């Protein structure tokens, strides 16, 4: 999973991640890409996490959870399902390889709506919500720099074009970046209109 660019959570604070998880069969294709990279570069952590796109993450106390969920329920009950299209690979030097998202606009709209969550979290003396400005799906992170350079040479020549419909967002919780995430809540979106009408 993505991690906060901050020090480890204080005692009593949990890390929350709001994510989009691709459905099958796109999810299976992404898993195969992660497994392939793991085999080539011996990076076991690559296959330990489920494919996902992080929309936001933040630190909060468990008693705040009910209010956060209530706010998010209101936000997402008004949102329509939308399409995500992956368009090849890119990287963040010196260690991360990811799938690019061709149409980030729906994520930007969600970020605008989530500012009310950020205000609430900040009002409770917690760090501000981190809203992801460049949504993507990580294939590998924390690669040694030499492996990153080799992998980018390989993956810059590869293609990956897949689409899926986002019909729900998932809120996850963990006590630190090394712990397994627990599913806290699933937010269903309203049905979209004319989705997946232009296949690759």
Structure write-up:
By secondary structure, this protein is α+β, with helices and mostly antiparallel strands. The protein has a single domain, classed as Cyclic phosphodiesterase (Cyclic Phosphodiesterase, Chain: A), CATH 3.90.1140. Helix content is 28%, strand content 30%. It is built from 5 helices and 9 strands. The strands form 2 sheets. A 5-stranded antiparallel sheet has the order 5-2-1-8-9, with helices on one face. It has a 4-stranded antiparallel sheet with strand order 6-4-3-7. A hairpin with a 3-residue loop joins strand 3 and strand 4. The longest helix is centred in the first third of the chain and has 16 residues, at 26-41. It is globular, with a radius of gyration of 17 Å. The two termini are 28 Å apart. The model is unreliable at 1-8 (pLDDT under 50).
Summarize this structure briefly.
The protein is of the alpha+beta class and 200 residues long. It has a single domain (13-188), classed as Cyclic Phosphodiesterase, Chain: A (Alpha-Beta Complex), CATH 3.90.1140. The protein contains five helices and nine strands.
């Amino acid at each position: 999973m993505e991690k906060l660019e901050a020090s480890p959570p204080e005692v009593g604070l949990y890390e929350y991640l709001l994510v989009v998880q691709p459905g099958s069969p796109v999810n299976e294709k992404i898993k195969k890409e992660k497994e392939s990279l793991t085999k080539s570069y011996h990076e076991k952590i690559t296959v330990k996490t489920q494919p996902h796109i992080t929309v936001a993450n933040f630190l909060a106390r468990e008693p705040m959870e009910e209010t956060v969920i209530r706010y998010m329920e209101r936000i997402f009950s008004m949102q329509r399902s939308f399409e995500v299209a992956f368009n090849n690979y890119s990287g963040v030097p010196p260690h991360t390889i990811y799938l690019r998202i061709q149409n980030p606009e729906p994520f930007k709209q969600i970020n605008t709506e989530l500012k009310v969550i950020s205000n609430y979290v900040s009002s409770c003396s917690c760090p501000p919500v981190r809203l992801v400005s460049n949504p993507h799906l990580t294939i590998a992170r924390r690669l040694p720099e030499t492996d990153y350079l080799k992998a980018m040479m390989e993956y810059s020549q590869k293609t990956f074009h897949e689409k899926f419909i986002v019909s729900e967002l998932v809120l996850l919780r963990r006590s630190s970046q090394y712990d397994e995430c627990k599913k806290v809540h699933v937010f269903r979106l309203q049905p979209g209109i004319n989705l997946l009408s232009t296949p690759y």
